[in-house]
Amino acid sequence: MLKYIAIKSRIYIESTVISYLVARPSNNLILAARQSASRQLWEDYADRFEFVISQVVLAEIQQGDVTAAQQRIEITSRLTVLENLPEIDILVQKLLDSGAVPRNSRPDAQHIAIATVHSVEYLVSWNHKHIVNEHKREHINYVCQAAGFQPITICTPAELMEDIQVKEPIEKHPEFDPETYTDPILEECYRIKAEISAQFKTQEEFSAYLKALEEKGKRNGLKYVSYYDPCKHIPPEKSDDDD
C-alpha cells in the first residue's frame, strides 16, 4: 500500500517575530497584540507548518541584550536553517538596485531573497519599514518575479492567521500607522539591522560574512538545508542592454 506524506507549507520566521516572542509582556496595547499574535502563531501552528530561519536571522537575534539574545537563540535552536546560495546574492542585489529595499537595509533584502530562492511559501515579519510594508510588497514581488522566481506571501503573523481563519479575530487599530510605529522591541531590531548593514559596502562582503558564520555553525553541529529547485527558476531573458 502506498503511503502519502503531506508536505507542510514553510514559514520563514524573520527576527522581529522572534524578538516579540521572548520579550517581557507589555501593557502597551499594540505591542501586546503583536506579542500575542506571535505566540499564537508559534504555539498553535507549529504542527501545521514548518518554521524556517536563516543565518541572517541568527546573526540578528544574537545581538542586543545578552539575556534576551540567549532566549532568542534557545527558542530557535530546533528550527531548520536555510543555506546561503549564490542565487540569493544575485536577488539581493536586484532588490537593492531596484529600490524595492533601501541600500542601507541589506539584511532585510537578504531575508526576502533567502525565503524566495528557497521557495518558502510565507515570510512573516513585523518589519513594516522594509519587509511587510504595504507600499513595497508589490514592488518586491515584481522584482522577484522578474528575476525568475515565484513571489512569496510576505505578511505579519496576524495577517497570516487571519488568512487561514483563526478562531479569535486579531484586534484592529484603525488609526494606527504600522510604518511609523515603533516600540522598544522594534527599535532594538532596527538598530541591530542598521549596525549589521553598516559593516558592509557590497553584497560580496556581506555574503562572505554570512558564509563564515555558516561554516562556524556547521563546525558546531548546526545543519543547513536547501530547498532551492533550479527547475522552478526561470532566468530572465537578456535584453540588448545586457550585451
Q: Count the strands?
A: 6
Strand order, largest beta sheet:
5-4-1-2-3-6
**Which residues form runs of ≥5 with pLDDT under 50?**
1-5
- Helix segment tally: 10
Strand content: 5-15%
- SSE run: EHHEHHEHHEHEHHHE
Share of helical residues: 40-55%
For the CA atoms, what is the radius of gyration?
18 Å
Q: Structural class per helix/strand content? A: alpha/beta
Overall morphology? globular
Span between N and C termini?
55 Å
Describe the sheet with the most strands: 6 strands, parallel
Overall pLDDT, averaged? 89
Explain how this protein is built.
Helix 1 (15-22) packs across helix 4 and helix 5 crosses helix 6 (106-117). By secondary structure, the protein is α/β, with parallel strands linked by helices. Residues 1-5 have low confidence and may be disordered. It has helices spanning 15-22, 29-44, 55-61, 66-75, 86-98, 106-117, 137-146, 157-163, 184-198, 203-219; strands spanning 9-13, 49-54, 80-82, 122-124, 153-155, 224-225. It has a six-stranded parallel β-sheet, sandwiched between helices. Strand 4 (122-124), helix 7 and strand 5 (153-155) form a beta-alpha-beta unit.
